[in-house]
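tokens incoming
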């Protein structure tokens, strides 16, 4: 692909009280030659998250109170300049410009509508389970058009990753993933304390279970029935 024709990427980082890690995440994004638009959505932080992001040169959108990951992503998407988006968590460790390139080039090339970077597990068999379990990962590149296919009702909290997976498949966009060794995360229990971290993890798991049931047990059969009846399968709301 000729350099003049390379499609550039907007990176969106939702962040709430991530001052310990966000600087290194932004350094990796800002050093990547394919990313020239880095947006941090400060989700009601009470620490120096926003100040650190501004000092690195990122565009910062500050929310007065926490609205959740999906809402923060939506605000970032609205501000993004490009049609290819990179979503990255603010609590990552080990993110490098090369990792970002590895994820975004699969979408830039048009080979995939969405491509996900999965944090490498130490045990090989756990990585192998990714072929049979939902692909969950905050580090993903996707086309803005895919984001717009997800109805607003599924853009809530941690439901968004399962929803993106579902609508990528339902709209015929190829979705792929790669396991990235060395990519880690500061877990909730270390960030928030044991009990609050566990509670937030339980809420995340609840979100994943709820949205999986709504999409795969309720919506998909409805869409299959509509196709069988010769009606449009989409039940999407207006893009948001």
């Amino acid at each position: 692909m000729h350099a003049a024709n390379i499609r550039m990427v907007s990176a969106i980082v939702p962040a709430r009280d991530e001052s310990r890690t966000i600087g290194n995440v932004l350094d990796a994004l800002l050093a990547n030659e394919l990313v020239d638009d880095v947006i941090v959505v400060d989700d009601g932080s009470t620490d120096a998250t926003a100040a650190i992001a501004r000092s690195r040169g990122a565009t910062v959108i500050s929310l007065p109170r926490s609205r959740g990951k999906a809402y923060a992503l939506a605000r970032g998407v609205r501000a993004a300049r490009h049609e290819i988006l990179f979503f990255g968590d603010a609590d990552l460790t080990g993110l490098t410009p090369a990792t970002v390139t590895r994820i975004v080039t699969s979408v830039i090339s048009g080979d995939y509508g969405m491509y996900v970077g999965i944090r490498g597990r130490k045990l090989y068999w756990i990585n192998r389970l990714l072929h049979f379990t939902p692909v969950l990962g905050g580090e993903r590149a996707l086309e803005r058009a895919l984001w717009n296919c997800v109805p607003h009702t599924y853009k809530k909290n941690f439901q968004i990753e399962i929803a993106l997976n579902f609508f990528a498949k339902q709209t015929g966009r190829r979705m792929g993933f790669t396991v990235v060794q060395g990519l880690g995360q500061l877990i909730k229990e270390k960030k928030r304390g044991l009990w609050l971290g566990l509670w937030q993890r339980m809420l995340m798991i609840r979100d994943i279970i709820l949205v999986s049931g709504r999409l795969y047990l309720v919506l998909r059969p409805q869409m299959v029935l509509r196709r069988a009846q010769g009606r449009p399968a989409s039940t999407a709301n207006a893009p948001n």
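note: The chain has a mean pLDDT of 84.
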